[in-house]
Amino acid sequence: MAESKITKRSEDYSRWYTDVIAAAELADYAPVKGCMIIRPNGYAIWEKMQQALDAMFKETGHQNAYFPLFIPESFLQKEAEHVEGFAPEVAVVTHAGGSKLEEALVIRPTSETIIWNSYRNWIQSYRDLPLLINQWCNIVRWEMRTRLFLRTAEFLWQEGHTAHATPEDAEEETVRMLGVYRRFAEEYMALPVIEGRKTEKEKFAGAQHTYSIEAMMGDGKALQAGTSHNLGQNFSKAFDVMFQTEKGTREYVYATSWGLSTRMIGALIMAHGDDNGIMIPPKLAAIQVVVVPIFRKPEERERVLKAVDNFAGQFKAAGIGFKIDDREQHSPGWKFNEWEKRGVPLRIEVGPKDLEKNQVMLARRDNREKTAASQDSLGQTVRQMLDTIQTSMFERAREFREKHSYRIDDYSKFNEILDGDGGFLWCHWCGSGECEEKVKEETKATIRNIPRDSPAEEGKCIKCGARSERRVIFARAY
Ligand SMILES: [Zn+2]
Fold first, then answer.
1. What separation in Å is there between the alpha carbon of 182 and the centre of ligand 1?
2. Which of 82, 130, 210, 452 could bridge across to 206 with cysteines, CB 3.0–4.6 Å?
3. Quick check: helix, strand or coil at residue 375?
4. C-alpha 461 – ligand 1 centre gap (Å)
5. What is the DSSP string of 79-103?
6. Hey, what's the torsion of the CAs at 433, 438, 440, 445, to 10 degrees?
7. What is d(CA 290, CA 336) in angstroms, rounded to the nearest whole number?
8. How far is the CA of 430 from the centre of ligand 1 (A)?
9. What pLDDT is recorded for position 3?
């Protein structure tokens, strides 16, 4: 295992991010520019994310399916906004099997078109609705600037595609799935997020409107952590998907789509990581606790490992993910450092002196506190400690966000804050795309979303001074 040093976060945030990924062996660059290799430690986080989300999708009535990677190019042309939005980043296959294809194939940048082409055959009557389908897959959106997990040409995600009989049902679904994403971010990732609606300029290409959850990263920038789109009848009209209503009339179907990707691993690193490496919230950690036995003499070794064996039984019974690091070629200190870099939430140290006192030492990854605990009912103690760590990671992230959130009514303060510690700027906005664009040009900040629970409040647009009824969030973003 190669030693890797992590640049201090305060020194160079971007290098720190790359170093953390290398130190924890989460991902590598690929031979093809823009692509990434997800290593086992990184993939283990994704698997945990998948399990949690998949269970929530099924609880809300969705089923998984799989649609092809290749989409006939003509499909993308059918929805005007959609093709315009995706054309610049689409990869196209023109040759296969040694000859030129009759029709070029697009590698899916998202699957609305190919899925709605099937829905035409699957939906005839109101009895076929709602149709609630999700797919786990990879996506290609051509990208030359690689930022592992955050910006890559190929990434993994899930995309939900649902069909409904009424606009109300579609809207309800769009909001429901935004809520699922929020719950996932907050309960599993320990990441507080703000639910809101995207502006016209920032919405998904082909959507009627888009909602997002937005999170604050450790450098004060925003990250869009998940999106849910109300597609209205745009795709059913493009693919001619009609159904017979209860009254016997024929109508176009209403659609939604929603997605969350491996970008969330980048979010996890940036929201919780520190100078010692990544910090994985217990609920997403495959290894939740690592046990480091400490011994010098052979008779100590035997006694300590016997005790550790007993712990292993308790952890199994309590459903705790654990690892016993009894490698003899490395010192305990080396191992402590190693597991910190890998973000394991809790470490247990146990040596001959601890055995005499019937205790172990617990070392938390999040605040690096060490406490002694009894060996009796250790499984239960560890379970409680993991819950505490999960909660305090969320609380810390929330406090950080609050500390870096500002209500700003003076545009001259904008760049001062953004060039400093950064953060979320809650400002009045008149609703015009022109003001939004000008602010972006002058400050590189975009409107992250129009928060769903932002209270009505009279004010003046931060840019033009026109009347505004509520505040929106401006921030620089990943
Ligand atoms: Zn304005």
1. 30
2. 82
3. coil
4. 5
5. SHHHHHHHGGG--EEEEETTEEEEE
6. -90
7. 9
8. 4
9. 55
379 Cβ contact partners less than 8 Å away, ≥ 6 residues apart: 311, 314, 315, 317, 318, 320
When pLDDT is averaged across residues 6-35 and rounded to a whole number, the result is 96
Could you tell me if 208 and 202 are in contact, meaning their C-beta atoms sit under 8 angstroms apart? no
Ligand 1 center to residue 421 CA distance, Å?
26
Question: Separation of 45 CA from ligand 1 center, angstroms?
Answer: 42
201 C-alpha vs ligand 1 centroid, how far in Å?
14
Q: Which residues pair with 428 in a beta bridge?
A: 471
Where do we find the tokens 């283990």? 44
CA of 431 to the centre of ligand 1 (A): 6
Whose tokens are 């919230």? That residue is 281
As a dihedral over the C-alpha atoms of residue 419, residue 424, residue 427, residue 433, rounded to 10 degrees, the angle is 80
DSSP lists the bridge partners of residue 374 as 359
Q: How far apart are the first and last CA of the chain?
A: 31
CB 137 within 8 A of CB 157: yes
Residue-level pLDDT at 79: 82
The tokens describing 239, both together, are 């693919």
Pairing label, strands 70-72, 99-107: antiparallel
CA triplet 189, 194, 198: central angle to 5 degrees? Answer: 120
Per-residue pLDDT at 1:
45
> Could you give the residue ranges of the DSSP H alpha helices within 262-377?
263-272, 298-317, 332-341, 352-356
Query: Looking at this protein, which amino acid is placed at residue 135?
Result: Q
Structure confidence by residue, pLDDT tens digits, 171-221: 999 999 999 999 999 999 999 999 999 999 989 888 999 999 999 999 999
Where would I find the H helices in 369-430?
378-403, 414-419
Residue 445 Cα to ligand 1 midpoint, Å, equals: 15
Beta carbons within 8 Å of 254's beta carbon, 6+ residues apart: 163, 164, 165, 166, 167, 169, 170, 231, 232, 233, 236
pLDDT in tens, 82-121: 788 888 899 999 999 999 999 999 999 999 999 999 999 9
Question: 231 C-alpha vs ligand 1 centroid, how far in Å?
Answer: 27
52 Cα: distance to centroid of ligand 1 (angstroms): 41
pLDDT in tens, 255-264: 999 999 999 9
pTM exceeds cut of 0.90:
yes
